[in-house]
Specification:
3 domains, single chain, about 325 residues, 5-stranded mixed sheet
């Protein structure tokens, strides 16, 4: 059965799994690993994507993230296509590097967030890349080392992860580590990466119990969560079934919005893009930046180019908004 379209909206929690084509390597050395993570971090910052856990393996990678203003597809397309071009140039190869369709699972945060963080961060141990928790804490290609403060990736939101384990940082980190040790003894592969009803209901044992009680539940291979959560996600997706507008048309409409806003404000488009901060220009740019990202789906960099400011300036405007 063909897979359905991806489900997404800004702020949606996803477990993303990336695999090399025909189980091939996606990194060959530490330079590749650094490049992959550098690109992921910069894109996360530029698109407002929150990253909470990751494990970069040899022929695949796991990422736990919340999609930003531009959605998951834009973030993943830029990450995978950009890195593949780098990889092919470096090794003088041609063709696909990744499987054509990465796997993304929408996750019910309250029920699964901590389990997903543990599952992803334990991957290097389960794959034999490291042997102990002490080695895992120093392994630089997994988010666990960042949470343990041995590696610094500012784009990984450690505070968000640790807040689920306690109010004080030290105690929360200790509780997090104890939770990982408990999860090491539990096989959640099918529960967190499987499909259909088993995954949506959180495991085969729950499905069996429901069947004994004569209960039925809605499920979807793209969603990890209970019946109510699955229904809510699918309902929202149905309400958002608008056909995507071509990028060229979005640019055209946004430029029309710029011209109209400038006309109403009594300034020229050239003056808006001049970088001047006089009069109402800062407020006008902020309003247009918000419209560019939220209504027209432009990237922060694209919005900045249209408004004559830097990507960081647009990011700052949106944070202030």
């Amino acid at each position: 059965m063909p897979r359905g379209p991806r489900l997404d909206a800004p702020g949606t929690l996803h477990h993303v799994i990336i695999r090399g084509i025909e189980k091939g390597r996606i990194v060959r050395d530490d330079q590749d690993r650094k490049e992959f993570l550098r690109r992921m971090g910069e894109l996360a910052k530029g698109t407002g994507t929150g990253i909470y856990a990751f494990a970069l393996m040899t022929n695949h990678a796991h990422i736990l993230l919340k999609s930003g203003h531009q959605g998951l597809s834009t973030f993943m397309r830029r990450l995978l296509s950009g890195y593949a071009q780098y990889f092919n140039r470096r090794y003088q190869r041609v063709g696909h590097l990744f499987q054509n369709r990465y796997k993304s699972i929408i996750c019910e945060e309250e029920a699964y967030f901590d389990k997903l963080v543990a599952y992803i961060h334990l991957n290097p141990i389960r794959a034999g890349l490291v042997n102990t928790f002490e080695e895992l804490a120093l392994y630089p290609w997994s988010g666990h080392a960042v949470i343990m403060e041995n590696v610094h990736y500012p784009w990984l939101d450690c505070d968000y992860v640790l807040q689920g384990f306690g109010n004080r940082e030290g105690a929360a980190r200790k509780a997090y580590l104890e939770f990982l040790e408990e999860e090491m003894g539990i096989d959640r592969e099918k529960e967190l990466s499987g499909g259909g009803l088993v995954r949506s209901q959180g495991g085969w044992s729950k499905v069996q119990s429901m069947r004994k009680r004569g209960e039925k539940a809605l499920s979807d291979e793209r969603i990890l969560g209970g019946d109510d959560f699955v229904r809510e996600v699918l309902k929202e997706a149905e309400e958002r079934k608008d056909v995507s507008m071509p990028e060229a048309r979005r640019f055209e409409l946004f430029n029309e919005a710029i011209e109209l806003a400038c006309e109403r404000a009594g300034v020229t488009v050239t003056f808006l893009r001049s970088g001047s901060r006089s009069g109402r220009l800062p407020l006008l740019r902020k309003e247009l930046a918000k419209k560019a990202v939220n209504e027209y789906g432009l990237s922060l960099a694209e919005a900045g180019r249209q408004l004559g400011v830097t990507t960081n300036a647009v990011s700052y405007m949106l944070r202030r908004t």
